[in-house]
Structure formats: C-alpha cells, structure tokens
Amino acid sequence: MSDTVSGAVDTPVTDAAKSGGSDAARIAEVKAWLASQFEAAGKEVPDFEYTSLSVGHLYNLATVSQAKTQAANIIAADFRQKAAEYRSQAARIKEILENMGLAQESLTSNVVSSAHVLANVANLLNIRDTEFSSFLVAMGDISLRKTAVEEKRAKVEKESKILLDYTRKAIARLTYLKSIHKQLEDDVAPCQKQMEDWKTSLAVMGSKERQYLQQYNNYKALLNRVGYTPEISHGVLVEMAEYRKELEKKTKPILDTLRSYQDLPPDKALAALAIEDKKRQYAAAEKYLEEVLHSALATND
C-alpha cells in the first residue's frame, strides 16, 4: 500500500482544503482507519504525502473495508446467536432424554453407534430431522440425481465414442496427407527440371514465332509489291495458264505464217495488206483472250 501511495503524484491536499472542511474530515478518517489497520497487524503507519488522489483511493478503501467489516460482524453475531440457540436446544433435548431414561450414558454402545450413524447419514443426505419420510425423500432425490448422472454419463460416453471415431479418422487422414506431402516433396525436383525445360522450349518457340511473323510480314510486303490480291487464287492462275496454252496453240500458225512472209520478195502493197490482215487476226485473238480471262474471274467470284 505504501508503494501505491508513494507513486501517486497530485496537488497537495492543502490546496484543495481551502474550499471547505470535507477534505480535512476525509484525511482524519483515513488516518484513523490506517492506524487501526496497522495497529491490528502490529506495525506502524508509513510516512507518505497525503494528496487528493491518494486520500480519495484510501477513503474509498476505508469505506468498503468498514462496510465489509460491519457485514461480517453482523453475520458473526447471527452465527453466535444461532450457536447459542442450538446449544440451548441440545441441552433441552438432553434433559428430555435423561428424564425418559434415554441419556447417552445409559445407552449401550450399539445404540450410540447406530445413533451416530443415523446422524451422519442425515448430515450426508442434508436433512434436518431423522424422520423416515425425510430419509425416503432424500433417497428419492439421490436416486433421481443418480439417474440424471447416469444419463449424462451415457451421453458423454456416446459423445466420447463419436469423438474417438472422428479422432481415428482424423489420424488416418493426417497420415494420408503426410504421405501425399512426402510424395509431393519427392516430385518437386523432377517438376522443377521439367519446368526449366518448358521455359527453355517456350523461349525457343517465342524466338521462332517472332521469326515466322517477320517472314510473314516480308512475304506480305512482297505480294503487295507484285500486285497480288486475294481474288487471284491458285485455281484462277491454273485456268489462265491453260487458256494461255490454248491461245499459243491458236496463234502459233499465224506467227508461222508471218515468219514465212519474211521470205517473200518485198512487195510493199501486198505486205501491207498481209500485215493488216494478221493484225486483225491478232487483235481478235487478244480480244478472245481477254473475254476468257474475264469469264474465268467472274466464275471464281
């Protein structure tokens, strides 16, 4: 208590005592209470500074202590009164028993021991008299309690069995999980190596993808330069090549005829007529070629 009091730091009581005499009265009560408590313990009250905070705590403690002491004194007085009444009643019962010739000195040892046993059983059953009905009621209450305890015990045993079953399943599950964990730990190294291989393969595939994209862009640019359009497909080109071969077959006799004219004597008028005739034939062949190409493109669309 001295440590608590010495640790409290607050304004002195003399500053607060100027407002009235209540603080002085509290200090007086606190000092009287401390003196009584330490005197009962055979010690002296230690010196400390009486501040408003320390006095407030000590006054509250003194109030609570005095209230509890007063209550304890009341209970003790009640117990002493009850004890006196019990002693008086015991003396009266003893006198009655002696007048009836049933004093403890005149009874045999078997009767005295039986009476003690009866009293002990009554105390054990928590009954105030030794009437047979009271014993029956107490025994019935004990039987009911016993039945309730047995029911609770059966319920607890059932729950214990369920918990034991759950525990066994949990242990089995834990063992299985431990084996799986060990297996996974064993598989870590191979999986890491496989992941490293996959990373290397992904890097190679990435470089190949960039290479193929670059080639695709180059081919696309090349096709744009040569005038390729999506309408020109392989089938159209094949048909055009076949028509070209047919036209070459048709124009070859004309070219052969023109070449044979080179061997003729130079007659300007006849040569001009022959040339104009071949030009008309050649123009007709070109027109026919254009019509065939247009018809092939239209059919493909």
Automatic annotation (TrEMBL):
InterPro entries, per the entry: HAUS1 (IPR026243)
Subcellular localization(s) per the UniProt record: Cytoplasm, Cytoskeleton, Spindle
Source organism phylogeny: Eukaryota, Viridiplantae, Streptophyta, Embryophyta, Tracheophyta
Pfam families on file: HAUS1 (PF25762)
A single Gene Ontology CC term: cytosol
Keywords on record: Cell cycle, Cell division, Coiled coil, Cytoplasm, Cytoskeleton, Microtubule, Mitosis
Family: Belongs to the HAUS1 family.
Chief location of this protein within or outside the cell: cytoplasm
Lineage: superkingdom: Eukaryota
Annotated stretches, region: Disordered: 1-20
Keyword Zinc on entry: no
Name of the featured protein: HAUS augmin-like complex subunit 1
